Amino acid sequence: MAEVHDIEFKDMPARFSAAASVAGVKPISPSSTPSPESEPDLEGEKMILNMGPSHPATHGVLRLILELDGEIITKAQPDIGFLHRGDEKIAENMTYTQFIPYTDRLDYLAPLANNVAYALAVEKLHGIDKQLPERCQYIRVICCELARISSHLLGLGAFAMDVGALTVFLHTFTEREKLYNLYESMTGARFTTSYTRIGGLSRDLPPGWVEQCRQFLKEVVVNIDESETFLTRNRIFVDRTRDIGVISKADAIDYALSGPNLRGSGVDFDLRKAHPYLVYDRLKFEVPIGSVGDCYDRYLVRMEEMRQSVRIVHQCLDQLPGGPVSIPDGKTVLPPKEKVLTSMEELIHQFILVTQGENAPAGEVYFGAENPKGELGFYINSKGGGVPHRMKIRSPSFVNLSILSHLLPGHMMSDTVSILGSLDFVMGECDR
Amino acid sequence: MEQAQKLKETFGELLAEPTEFRGETSIKVLDAERIAEVCDFAKKELGFDYLIDVSSVDNLGEDPRFAVVYELYGMEHHAHLRLTTVVGEEKSELPTVSGIWRTADWHEREIYDMMGIRFRGHPDLRRILMWEGYPYFPLRKDFPLAGKPTDLPEVAFTKAAPLEGGPFVTSAGAKDRIAREPRGKTFEK
């Protein structure tokens, strides 16, 4: 049987000189900038490689223009915008409530969390975010955390699949299917949930949903543990992610990364802790942070975040109070349907709200929520009336991807896949 | 609010009085040419090391027409501050802050792409969401929601796909598989 060699992936200059000594050529250093004048034969010419827009590892339509020296990336230029639909322009031309379905299509792996973030931003503008009924707040937290579990399950599965572990993807996808069943009974849709309304929710939880959710939480913990045994100590996975794509703390802040990518770099910042919205200040949970800032740390942070989300949902289900799910104010919040059909005043309110929109005060607000991908923020500039004058969506994927041209150079071509997988972006949100 | 007051004390007449709405503090920088200076001070002296977002507003009919909005945040003191400034249409240019926070790079490209406001000193001011050569600025208020017809961008790959003309691919207008493959004609119709 052939001797098994221990391959050291990290020490690239050593490997280069070892390979060069076998081949009998002068070693070159991958880190130093090539000088074509001195060694024209060895350096060769740079190759431009076009990765994407439809490449399995780009998770959507991201195009990377990579300049390669051999297998080392010397320059990377992301090209985005293939999924641009003009959401911000659309938002200026409709009422606040009408835009809710568009938020489903931002980060389409966590539509519920987008719905919540958007509703909270508009409620902040109206100044009604503190009046939300308790039950509504708890259900919204449940929405956010289930969305986080769902998004991380897919993100990790796809990440593992990109670096060669296909099983994890199938494994986590099975679990996500159960989540979609929960969404379906809660919102009526599996994917495009549009669950929140300005000042409340479109409907209450259906009977028996809490028990179904508890059952899911029991099962998902097992699934997370199993996925972890597939990956955390997996030699191939560790070799392909550890010390790859290291983002320093200073860089992470300078590039304004958010979410697991920021925390993976060791910055202890979570909007749920720093500026608790909804009822996050009443819930106990930890914020995992990384130490090195490499792909492996970002993976570990997501793994732990899912467990913390399970913990949060458990607490919410325990504390879930009764009562209404929407603010009982017909001037800003759509009245319940049965009242609209039987009572004159509610019918008038409904008519005004649907045709003209909620009359917002003039002013500008920014609200950022801790979404699975990072800080999803809405800047709303209102001149009064039912339509925003300008709405800017601060999408975490857009900001997280902006570090690529800084991060990729110096890595091997195949590391691109690990780095993209660990950044966990969604192009629907990036391009808006 | 505390940081806003410090900023106001330092720059005096350059800044308008800080305003508060829904618990957020906004300051208007009256001269857009000095926005980078104010941002630099806010980052280095007041600890606003995290630039959340840069956005732009088109106030069509007002003069100056455009507003640029910076959402600043400090990782140490967890305070938020909004800086706004205005730019006229004929000039539509202001200094970049991408040298202060590198995250501003893409935000400013997006503003250039969508609103047509240029950032002086930006390292790579190109369109980001629309394609290179697109003639309009779609987020301006005078651009219609339905869009305007334009030439499509040049197709990236104009050469024939590798399998085109081969036995498995039928190109539009060319002979189909049966016609190309003599043995296929044995079938009775």
List keywords for this structure.
heterodimer, A: 432 residues, alpha+beta, Cytochrome-c3 Hydrogenase, chain B, three-stranded antiparallel beta sheet, 19 helices, globular, B: 189 residues, alpha/beta, Beta Polymerase, domain 2, five-stranded mixed beta sheet, 4 helices, 7 strands, 19% helix
Write the SSE topology.
The complex is a heterodimer of chains A (432) and B (189).
Chain A: H1 12-23, H2 40-43, E1 47-51, E2 63-69, E3 72-79, H3 87-91, H4 100-104, H5 111-126, H6 134-162, H7 166-187, E4 196-197, E5 200-201, H8 209-231, H9 235-241, H10 249-254, H11 260-264, H12 271-274, H13 295-319, H14 337-342, H15 344-356, E6 360-371, E7 374-385, E8 390-394, H16 396-401, H17 404-407, H18 415-423, H19 427-431
Antiparallel strand pairs in A: 1-2, 2-3, 4-5, 6-7, 7-8
Chain B: H1 2-11, E1 19-21, E2 24-29, H2 35-44, E3 50-58, E4 66-73, E5 80-87, E6 93-95, H3 104-115, E7 118-120, H4 177-180
Parallel strand pairs in B: 2-5, 6-7
Antiparallel strand pairs in B: 1-2, 3-4, 4-5
Please provide a written account of the structure.
- The complex is a heterodimer of chains A (432) and B (189).
- Chain A has 432 residues and is an alpha+beta fold.
- Chain A has one domain (87-431): Cytochrome-c3 Hydrogenase, chain B.
- Chain A contains 19 helices and eight strands.
- In chain A, the strands form three sheets. Chain A has a three-stranded antiparallel beta sheet with strand order 1-2-3.
- In chain A, strand 6 (360-371) and strand 7 (374-385) form a beta hairpin.
- Chain B is 19% helix and 21% strand.
- In chain B, helix 3 (104-115) links the parallel strand 6 (93-95) and strand 7 (118-120).
- Chain B starts with a helix and ends in a 9-residue tail after the last helix.
- Chain B is elongated.
- Chain B has helices at 2-11, 35-44, 104-115, 177-180, and strands at residues 19-21, 24-29, 50-58, 66-73, 80-87, 93-95, 118-120.
- Chain B is built from four helices and seven strands.
- The mean pLDDT of chain B is 81.
- With 189 residues, chain B is α/β, with parallel strands linked by helices.
- The A-B interface holds A 50, 80-81, 84, 86, 88-90, 93, 124-125, 127, 253-256, 267, 269, 274-275, 363-366, 368, 375, 377, 379, 381, 389-390, 392, 394, 398-399, 402, 406, 431-432 and B 21-22, 24, 26, 49-53, 55-58, 69, 71, 75, 78, 80, 82, 101-103, 105-106, 110, 114, 127-131, 138-139, 143, 145, 156.
